[in-house]
Amino acid sequence: MKFNTKLIHGGISQDKATGAVTVPIYQTSTYAQKELAGTPEYEYSRTGNPTRKAVEDLIRDLENGTAGFAFASGSAAIHTVFTLFSAGDHIIVGNDVYGGTFRLINTVLTRLGLTFTTVDTRNITEVKEAIKENTKAIYLETPTNPLMRITDIKKVSQVAKENDLLTIVDNTFATPYIQRPLDLGADIVVHSASKYLGGHSDLIAGLVVVNKPELASQIGYLQNAIGGILGPQDSWLLQRGIKTLAVRMDAHQCNAAEIYQFLKEDQRVTKIYYPGDETSADFTVVKNQMDGFGGMLSFELEKGLSVKHFIESLQLITLAESLGSVESLVEVPAIMTHGSIPEAIRLKNGISNELIRLSVGIEQAEDLLADLKQGLDAATK
Ligand SMILES: *Cc1c(COP(=O)(O)O)cnc(C)c1O
């Protein structure tokens, strides 16, 4: 089955009991058991629920994995994956990961005895040099947020395999429509499904997909033991959102490409971070591992222009955190999503105070371009 067909028919796309063409919402906590001490398929909804199973099997099929798992948020999914490890274990982490992941690592997981080294995962030498005797995994995002840095998943996975480490990839920005990390050698994929997979700014959810039965039983055990599961209503909403992923991503990508061209031609925009930038050093890796450039881009205004005036004059593009939805969103990482990172570290990582991040929606491109143009004019005044 091709990817776009899997979006519609992957996982469990029909109800066996009634033939309903959409999966029902099984709003139940428990299930009648036929015999004492039997082995029923479902016994309690933390452990398993058919609506949740439908979305879990769907993401498994889309990422070409062994099993999928749905959680109450991307953060809950990431936390559960990190509980594969024990006090004393060491994990290598990309230096440009999602702020919430950074917070989870630094203020929660280190307290529980895990240790971390952050590296630029684009640099294989740096990755290799960070490996210690107690290293268990490499955790990375690509493209990163907000600078769209691209890591070669194949290369990192190779180093991981040689050293008996797991490779864990946060695939939120690309989605399996554009990039399938398990096919490139990674062992575990995590998602904030609150973004492109849900796709409509109406849901918080997380997903995990693994590439082998042993990991599937471990994550299944932890999901049940920790209990941060996705409820049946949200599981239903998520599988509904995923069905249109291909058409939405096509529209996001077309609009983002047009906006990139527009910004590139405007002298008031000094820097643009976009996976489709052919002049970027990361572009060869983009061509090799991604099927498109996605719908995210960041840019900087010329010094002296007012970021505040630009943002506040936008009429259509909404000032908000989050990304990956049908409506275009804009934010200033230094003040918003990355505000909790100490300024010195933030600036060192390339996130300036003038940086603006755009999650390009699927509105008509000319309306978005007109909005950006009047925003730039307002910033110039
Ligand atoms: C939003 C996000 C997360 C966290 O997901 P939540 O659903 O908000 O908990 C993790 N990783 C990335 C890349 C994200 O954008």
TrEMBL record:
List GO terms (cellular component aspect).
cytoplasm
Q: Which domain of life is it from?
A: Bacteria
N6-(pyridoxal phosphate)lysine: residues bearing it: 195
| Keywords annotated in UniProt | Lyase, Pyridoxal phosphate
Tell me if Protein transport is a UniProt keyword of this record: no
Write down the InterPro entries for this protein, in alphabetical order.
Answer: Cys/Met-Metab_PyrdxlP-dep_enz (IPR000277), PyrdxlP-dep_Trfase (IPR015424), PyrdxlP-dep_Trfase_major (IPR015421), PyrdxlP-dep_Trfase_small (IPR015422)
Molecular function (GO) terms for this protein are: cystathionine gamma-lyase activity; cystathionine gamma-synthase activity; pyridoxal phosphate binding
As cofactor, the record names:
pyridoxal 5'-phosphate
Biological processes per GO annotation = cysteine biosynthetic process via cystathionine; methionine biosynthetic process; transsulfuration
Do you know which PANTHER family this protein is assigned to?
CYSTATHIONINE GAMMA-LYASE (PTHR11808:SF15), TRANS-SULFURATION ENZYME FAMILY MEMBER (PTHR11808)
What does the similarity note say? Belongs to the trans-sulfuration enzymes family.
Protein's UniProt name:
Cystathionine beta-lyase cystathionine gamma-synthase
> What is the species listed in this Swiss-Prot or TrEMBL entry?
Liquorilactobacillus hordei DSM 19519
